[in-house]
User: Fold these one by one.
Assistant:
Number 1:
Amino acid sequence: MTETPWQTCDGTVCLIAGDCRECGHSFFPPQLHGCEYCGASGAALKPRSVPATGTVIAAVTVHTHPVHPTPFVVADIAVDSHPLVIQATVRQMPDVGDRVIGREVDSDSGPEIAFDLFEGTDR
């Protein structure tokens, strides 16, 4: 579907999610192997661009990792305007219910997406 699971749209970051035309299931990152819900594949799976904004539903600090420098924060994010929950790196420990926005950032392994708290969030 796409090499990177995000793109720039209107100056912000959008996630490239996948939708199954057979059953309506949504998934991220996009792939063509088959719908994890109904098994449909190929042309039944289509990419969809969704804004990289959402609400934190859980977060954890990772203290040990075999590759990436620690500590770092990973959050479950309910994506706005799409029935989708993703796990992503967050650059500051959020509270459950905090609003976040995805941004493209440089890392040692190249560009990646990370989420920041919306401007105006008190910390």
Note: The chain has a mean pLDDT of 87.
Number 2:
Amino acid sequence: MAYVHDGRGIDPIFKNEDEVREFCKKLPTYFMQGQSQAEVCSSLNISQQTFMNYRKMYPILEDAYQLAITHAEAYWTRRGKDGTFGDGEVNAPLYKFQMTNRFGWGEKVQTEVTGKDGSALSVTLTKADVSAFDKEFDNDY
């Protein structure tokens, strides 16, 4: 039997691997309406720390969680798409905040490095530079 400390004491959540597999089948459905990890843990009456500990203990649970988060992101993506095309309302600043903070979305940033006057950047190495590089990385390049 697996035990994890969740702040309230030592609680057995899964009695065996079969219970873990059954939970993994259900987990993605908990996120299909865009719920956060905190919301799901609250509805299951477990702490987020316990949930994270179990994800580390059981790779199958981590896989199920990744699928669940994909469902949550898809839900919010559809909400934004529907709002964009007039099939629903969307508060653009709050939507952007939600997607950036929950799913790592952000503005596309590109950086270009050029030499003097916009010309190609050139790098010149001396033998000492190459020797120092070889010493630093032990010829492993």
Note: Helices lie at 17-30, 37-44, 48-57, 59-84, 92-103, 127-137.
Number 3:
Amino acid sequence: MQIEAVEESVNYLALGLEWPLWKATELAGSGLRIENTAFKSIAIFASSVAGFAALPLYFTGRLLTLISDSYFKRNFIKITSANKTEGSPKTFLSFNVCMMPGILSQIFGGMTPASQRVNQLAQFIKAQRADVVSLQELTFAGGGANQLIQQIKDVYPHIFYRIGPNNAGMENGLFFASRIKPISENYIPFQEITGRQYGFKRGFFVAQFEDQYVISTHLDPGRGTVRAEQIKAIIEYKKGLSKPILLMGDLNIEPEDAAAHALLAGSFANYDSEAAKHIDETNGTYLSKEQRWLQNDHILTDRKIQQIVIPAFGDKYKNAPLSDHHAVLVRVNA
């Protein structure tokens, strides 16, 4: 317990040292949205100066994190309560929240900084009343995970974050929270499968409950062949388990991913490979830059249960979208 406390202290110290740089990039992003040219130039110049000044602190924080990771050899950090809620989870929420560090949410998702959306996200999560929550693209360093933890830990006493390796400061962004304490937890990296985002060491988080295993992942956004190999790795892992599994996360599946469709349809009863090829605003969870609807986000089980798409952008969130993805929810009857 003392070792875990030391590790947590080191991580929060590193977080504090990295924060000024990410905040400076947030300010730069805000400056880019200013219409007045003069004010825009002043804002960008000021944030650039602040960013350069923060670099020594950032690299010190990165060094602390690398030392911590090398020494403690952790696969994830967890906050868990001694109180054990009986039973097994029945309601599941999966959501790619696009809460990356600093300006990255704006660059890759067109979203406002994570710090400006995290309060709204906490309210959204609590409103769904899910037993298990799987989030993707929620980083600890500059991405709002710490703020979110403080707001939901009263409802979700078992939280797992900074899941997987943190090579070169590139977290894979997985975050897992549960009302019910898992029997065990594990992280399985995808071995020798390199996707488009080389620095991200992707894999899947596994939580064992009384009557099932819950697997949370975020597959590669690049080639369909890579995603198929990652799905194969999960299915192979599934064969060695004594209980059914529920797979949740952003699978980045596209209509053209024939191999992935076949693999998922053959392993999960509620995956409809034909419907997955015909996506529109009624069942899509992500609208691409080409204005093409995709069903990237899934909760898959061995039962024929339809997942519910919960809007996080569009008409309801026109002025303040919560993410560039919709959330998905599944309720499993006892």
Note: The chain has a mean pLDDT of 85.
Number 4:
Amino acid sequence: MNLGGLCQRQRLSLLGEKKPGAAFAIIASFADREFDNEKQKESSRMEDRDCFRQGGPMRFPLGLVLACGLLNTGWALAQQLEVAPPVPSQAGPSLAPPKYLADPPTLFWVRDESLTWWIQSAPLPPLVTTAPQGTPVIQAGVLGQEGTTTVFGTERANNESRCGIRYTLGMDLVPDKIDVEGYFLILNSQSHGFGLSSTGNPILARPFFNVLTNRPDAELIAFPGGLHGTVQAEASSSNLIGAGALARCALFDHPHLRVDLLGGYRFLRFDEGLDVREDLDLSIPGQTGSTTIGVHDSFVTHNEFHGGELGAETQFRGGPFTLSLLAKCALGDNHRETKINGSTTTTLPGELPVTIPGGLLAQPTNSGAHTDNAFSVIPELGLRLGWWLSPNIQLSAGYTVMWWTAVVRPGDQVDLRVNPSRVSVSQGGPQFPAFPNNDSTLWIQGLNLSVKFRF
């Protein structure tokens, strides 16, 4: 009988059924039967019991059993082995873009900003003075005289913080490469006022420099002995309005660093005013009733900038956080207009009021609308720290500072040199006050809180 062939067929059959344990039992049983048959055949011929124990037939079935046992054990181990999954690389952190900064497919985005900004305070000349009781009338309220104090002017007006808003709308033209945006901002207006009435105590006056005497002088508003008066002054500042359009082009774009080139158009507008009114009530001995005199000076300035703008913005990225640094500069034309108007209204007892052009500091020599255009520069720096709450919503806080050159402001247009005699002016006397057309650089700075949405 072919024992090897039978064992092989049994092994393949059982392995096909995936029962390696059963293969071992069957083959061991078959080997025992073959051993018994051989024992019966040999018993009749073997006389010595030692021959039976050491016979060759005993060694063959034992080797077969051992071979099948090893085969069974190897198969069981093979069934338990699994291919180990690949071990991820431990080379270091991935440089893939952070999840929050990987731009989703968006077309538009909008940023809503709340602004708390400051505008450089308005310069004011000395406009109202006072003097202690007992001061001679010729010295009362005159600048440089002992005891004279400025009660309105010389201080910086409208230097408190201003609230405002800025809206920016952007659109991606080429994703991650080129986009365009437009913005609009507005800051609220502000005013700084002063008002005081007196029947002579305290002394009130309006100082000026008398070009006829070539020395400081003053126009009295209230003085003991019959001159009563009221003075009101206000320095006002209108809304600061700005707008612009920019195109952005990515010069360098890395998962943790991006640099954009900016170019576009900028508009900025700012108006201010300075107004002084005085009302005098003069009692003249022997005259029934009193004479009233009203003097009004007004200075209004208007600045409107149009120009091109170039700059760059660098953005550092890390996780959901971004840090942006902005630097840009606008070059263009500042359209400037200064309006100066003055009037004096006199009402004698029993007569109708009579109004003539010219007040104290706004007279025909400098009154009117003065318009020109000047080259202006507006550099701007900005810093913004952002936090992406989700791929489409970002909160940020930042700081902005800018400078605006060649700006006209009301206080700078006041000329304290005055020819108090209108007759000499009309006859060719000293033409003062004059229009100085002074300008200065205005700074604007403040804090920004914003939320950005991507669609």
Note: The helical segments are 3-16, 20-43, 49-53, 56-80, 422-426.
